[in-house]
Amino acid sequence: MTHLNSTQHQAWKNNGYLKLSGFFNSDEVKDIQSWVFNISTWETTVDKWMHHYESTPNGARLSRSENFVPYHQKLKDTVTRGKVIDVVSEVMSEPAILYKEKINYKYPGGGGYAAHQDAPAYEFVDFHITCLISVDASTPDSGCLYFASGRHEEGFIALDEKGCIEPKTADTMNWTAVPTDPGDILLFGSYIPHKSPPNSSKHPRRIIYLTYNPKSQGDWREKYYDDKRQAFAEYAKDGTKRDEQISKIAHFRGKSIKNAESH
Ligand SMILES: O=C(O)CCC(=O)C(=O)O
User: Fold this and answer.
1) What integer pLDDT is reported at residue 260 of this predicted model?
2) Which atom of ligand 1 is closest in space to residue 246's alpha carbon?
3) Is the C-beta atom of 245 inside 6 A of ligand 1?
4) Atom of ligand 1 minimally distant from the CA of 196
5) Distance 140 CA to ligand 1 centre (A)
6) Considering only CA atoms, which residue is closest to atom 8 of ligand 1?
């Protein structure tokens, strides 16, 4: 079964991203919202899922959770079989496998992200496709994504020491806001430049990001998280403060904090 028509395939090819409105129906959206809420209440662990926190005007809040799929069977079924993996495989032109996953919560006052490409942070495989699921509405006010349409075929663009697109170059790009509603998905490749502003609204802007690689290139999920844990353990000792980042690239513009009493 195919999910996309030829216009959508062409838009994917031209722009480097594709929004599919209403991919999940309202019952599915309610389930996804309750699963995300549930994950946000899980206690922090050292060896299973990872939570990251940021300081907001309303106090400490979760900024991100990662590596939760193995611990949530329903979400696992939703993202590793059925229509999500089918549509990702369709745009990938071959079967896809989950590489990593995260929830970015972006609660009111939560930080934005500097212009970047994902590829520098996604090692071991050359190309990835991310499927974003909009859990809440995302708007320019609440911190939706902006893409530099059509700039996905240029390899790394003006990579700076933070692993981001050097700000002077980013300022010359044409940025398109892509707002989403709950249940929409947005597919984008790992070379498309994107960024997002902070959440200046009164509403949470939760998004699930599911990143896949071609299955023919292997299953890297465990290796990705092992490597990330190891790298961050080293960052904590090397005096660079890189352990305050939420990714190997320093794209997050919020005020990360190590632990949070309340969230
Ligand atoms: O959630 C956002 O606002 C953008 C996130 C992003 O680009 C990333 O996590 O790499």
Assistant:
1) 63
2) 9
3) no
4) 3
5) 14
6) 113
Token representation of residue 8: 């959508």
3-state secondary structure of 30: helix
Q: What's the 177 CA to ligand 1 centre distance in angstroms?
A: 13
Q: Note the CATH number of domain 6-257.
A: 2.60.120.620
- CA 189 – CA 92 distance, rounded (Å): 9
By CB neighbour count within 10 A (0-12 exposed, 13-18 middle, 19+ buried), where does 69 fall?
buried
For the sheet with 185-189, list strands across it: 17-20, 185-189, 129-134, 207-214, 96-104, 59-66, 50-56, 255-257
The string of pLDDT tens digits covering residues 125-164 is 999 999 999 999 999 999 999 999 999 999 999 999 999 9
Decide if 236 contacts 243 (C-beta within 8 A). yes
pLDDT digits (tens, 9 = 90+) for 16-69: 999 999 999 999 999 999 999 999 999 988 889 999 999 999 999 999 999 999
Distance from Cα 1 to the centre of ligand 1, integer Å? 30
What residue's CA is closest to ligand 1, atom 3? 196
Where along the chain do its domains lie? 6-257
What tens digit of pLDDT does each residue of 183-210 get?
A: 999 999 999 999 999 999 999 999 999 9
138 lines ligand 1 (CB under 6 A): no
- Model pTM score: 0.96
Cα-only R_g, the chain: 17
Q: Is 226 helix (H, G, I), strand (E, B) or coil?
A: helix
